[in-house]
Amino acid sequence: MIRVKILTLVLLFAFLVACAVQTHPFGKPDQTFMDDYFIQNGQAETGSNNIVSSVVFDYRGFDTLGEASILFAAAMGVFLVLRRVEK
Amino acid sequence: MKRSSESGMSVIVRTVTCVAAIPVIIFGLYVIMHGHLTPGGGFAGGAIIATMTALFIVAEGGDAADRLGRGMLLTAESAGLVLFALLAFLGLRTTFFYNFLANSGSIFGTQVPFGPNPGYLETAGVIPLMNLVVGLEVFAALSLVVIFMFSYRREEQ
Predict the structure, then answer these.
(1) CB contact, 8 Å: B141 with chain A?
(2) Number of domains in chain B
(3) Domain extent for B62
(4) B35 and A49 in contact by Cβ < 8 A?
(5) What is chain A's Cα-based Rg?
(6) For residues A56 and B41, is the Cβ–Cβ distance under 8 A?
(7) What is the tens place of the pLDDT at every residue in B51-79?
(8) Phi, psi (deg, nearest 5) at residue B6
(9) Which of B70, B81, B111, B131 to probe the A interface (max A CBs under 10 A)?
(10) CA torsion angle for B61, B67, B71, B75 (degrees, to 10)?
(11) How far is A38 from chain B (nearest CA, A)?
(12) Whole-number mean pLDDT of chain B?
């Protein structure tokens, strides 16, 4: 039984080492079409220096609308659960 | 409003809270208003201002949670979300969430030069306005959550 455990551990460690060796190099993505587009045209199209802000509020604004709605729903849920009930 | 025997923490803590409130709120407004120039934005700035609500309640004790205007906060929260959706719908002439104010020459419509620049406040179209309304909504929502949880805990005792 102990042999199986040690074998499993060694195999797992070898797998993790192989994964770590083959990891994608940091800062070198394969597909850069969208990144290049945002960096090249973001300032001209939205006038925002902050590319993250222009993505969050302009290019992917619909996502932010859902985010704000979820926050609203969370506050309403707390209000519904913890409100005062007249007895 | 009557003050019960439970009146919060010491005078030192309450005074420091009042003194700290001004720079913290100003910093939160700065983060909101410069959301299109620096890291941060509506969500981060609203959370910074809502921190002040929590600190105020902790310092002033349980009665403070009842004294804060909940109706106003509820209105601010709803108004923030509605104005955000309205700003999104205003660009519907082209698409949903179209930045119709950017590079238009009107308010927040100045063109920005490409590349690194000092950062001009009157740029980016609807992004500063959206940051403003989202900051209002996040501040009101987080404050309401803190207030409701605190007053619920008091009633349990």
Answers:
(1) yes
(2) 1
(3) 11-156
(4) no
(5) 24
(6) yes
(7) 998 888 888 877 777 777 788 888 889 99
(8) -85, 95
(9) B81
(10) -70
(11) 12
(12) 83
Question: Is residue B1 assigned to a domain?
Answer: no
Q: Chain B interface, mutation test: which of A38, A53, A64, A83, most B Cβ atoms within 10 Å?
A: A53
pTM: 0.78
B53 touches chain A (CB under 8 A): no
Please indicate, yes or no, if residue B4 is contained in any of the structural domains. no
Residue A78 with chain B: CB contacts under 8 Å: 144-145, 148-149
Q: Quote the DSSP letter at residue B93.
A: G
CA distance B106 to A65: 25
What pLDDT, in 10s, does the model give residues B141-154? 999 888 888 877 66
Distance CA B134, CA B43 (A): 7
Q: Is the residue at B5 inside a domain?
A: no
Structural domain includes residue B41: yes
Concatenate the DSSP letters of all residues of chain A into one string: -HHHHHHHHHHHHHHHHHHHHTPPPTT--S--HHHHHHHHHHHHHH--S-HHHHIIIIITHHHHHHHHHHHHHHHHHHHHHHS----
